[in-house]
Amino acid sequence: MIQVRNLTKSYKYKKILSEATLNIEGIYGLIGPNGAGKTTLMRILAGLVSVNEGEILVESDKFQSKDLKSVRNNIGYLPQDFNMYPKATVFECLEHIAILKGLKDRKERRNRIEQVLEQVNLLEATKQKVHKLSGGMRKRLGIAQVFLTDPGILIIDEPTAGLDIFERIRFRNLLREISKDKTIIIFSHIVEDVEFLCTKLGIIKEGKVLAEGTPSEIAQTSSGLVWEIQAHPDHLPEIFKQYTVIDIKQQDYNLLDIRILSEQKPNKATPLKPTLIDGYLSIINGWGIEKDEPIKI
After folding, report:
1. Most buried residue, 18, 137, 207, 220, by CB count within 10 Å?
2. What is the pLDDT of residues 169-214, one digit of tens each?
3. Do 199 and 230 lie in a common domain?
């Protein structure tokens, strides 16, 4: 488990994180809109950025901001865009990274590279140039370079950004497979990714943690707020002005089924079972939340 306690980070006069507190375990997802402070928190956890205030506890060991560098060898970090050494082959890329990570014995290094390539299903791509790999294959290569040292903590930024639907499913399944005995932290603004993968979530907005809990617990925060109304397509502009619209399905040419969030029941509306995206949006909108007190579920 990783405990984040009251982290505060400012750049010049702008506060990016404000007393962020999280209890990270299992496959943990941190979601929030763009500009919420996710990237800054991610770089802090990866040991790349210091903080002004706060502390991080990794498996009960306490670290101040700069001291987190001492556990960096147990942290694997996969940025959103992994495209190192584009003109090198997959094997050459991993061999260079392995040398940088301290794997000096040539035979041991080769065996380890083959192991991680097999683990991420890239063994047949050993001689391919990195720049010729698909987006999904580059993501898997990124996981392979992380696993050269078998870290206990894996930090992944926007895991399925830029992937087609088949690569997205394959990469999600890979993360599921490798999650045994590891803490995986996923930073994303795509709610569907964390809904499928994560056992626990944190929601952040404008540098503040608004809520933390399981996906089902987050979903339940919107209980009594989710409705379905039916309307003619011509009425959509007015509906968008009045409500937070989640989804629209066309029933026939003249009738739409519209999923909305509303604190008050609209006329002729049908209540719906809340989902994670409903809970996320209700929390982001501030419904049912004390402004200075995050929801701990």
Report:
1. 207
2. 877 888 888 787 789 999 888 888 788 889 999 999 999 999 999 9
3. no
- State the CATH number of the domain containing residue 6: 3.40.50.300
Query: Total domain count for the chain?
Result: 2
Nearest Cα residue to 205 out of 52, 34, 75, 68: 34
Q: Is 279 left (phi over 0), alpha (psi -120 to 50) or beta?
A: alpha
Extract long-range pairs of 6-14: CB within 8 Å, 24+ residues apart: 6/53, 6/54, 6/55, 7/41, 7/44, 7/51, 7/53, 7/54, 7/55, 7/56, 8/51, 8/52, 8/53, 8/54, 9/37, 9/40, 9/44, 9/49, 9/51, 9/52, 9/207, 10/52
Assess if residue 234 is contained within a domain.
Answer: yes
Q: Is residue 283 part of a domain?
A: no
What the block records as the tokens of 126 is 């050993």
Q: Rounded to 10 degrees, what is the CA torsion of 11, 84, 145, 94?
A: -150
d(CA 233, CA 49): 49
Is residue 135 a part of any domain in this protein?
yes
The whole-angstrom separation of Cα 160 and Cα 136 is 8
Domain hosting 84: range is: 2-213
30-55 average pLDDT score = 88
Kindly report, residue by residue over 248-290, the tens digit of the pLDDT.
998 888 899 999 999 999 988 999 999 999 999 999 988 745 4
